[in-house]
Amino acid sequence: MSDELVRFLKGMVKEEEEIVRSVESAVGDLKNFAVRSVLRGISYDSLKHAEMYRSAGELL
Questions:
Q1: In the chain, what are the domain boundaries?
Q2: How many CB atoms lie within 10 A of CB 33?
Q3: Residue 28: DSSP 8-state
Q4: Can you give the C-alpha Rg of the chain in angstroms?
Q5: How far is CA 53 from the centre of its chain?
Q6: Distance in angstroms (rounded) separating the CA atoms of residues 60 and 4
Q7: Among 5, 32, 41, 46, which residue's Cβ finds the most Cβ atoms within 10 Å?
Q8: Most distant CA atoms of the chain, gap in Å
């Protein structure tokens, strides 16, 4: 169970980091401040999620 959970958490870290990379590459060309800000907010949330998953994995 623990190994499976660690694999799951590592996978989630990778997924969240991919979201961050994707958003960061997309927002550079956006002119609309509101849309750019919302997407950056999503990106920041994904960074936090990745850190939470990483921390949970370290506790196991």
A1: 2-59
A2: 8
A3: T
A4: 14
A5: 10
A6: 11
A7: 46
A8: 47
How far apart (Å, rounded) are the C-alpha atoms in residues 41 and 60? 29
pLDDT digits (tens, 9 = 90+) for 2-29: 899 999 999 999 999 999 999 999 998 8
Q: Locate tokens 């997924």: which residue?
A: 15
- CA–CA gap between residue 45 and residue 19 (Å, rounded): 10
Decide: helix, strand or coil at residue 1: coil
Task: State the burial class of residue 16 (Cβ atoms within 10 Å of its Cβ: 0-12, 13-18, 19+).
Answer: buried
Position 30, amino acid: L
pLDDT tops 90 at residue 1: no
Q: How far apart are CA 56 and CA 60, in angstroms?
A: 7
Single pTM value for the model: 0.85
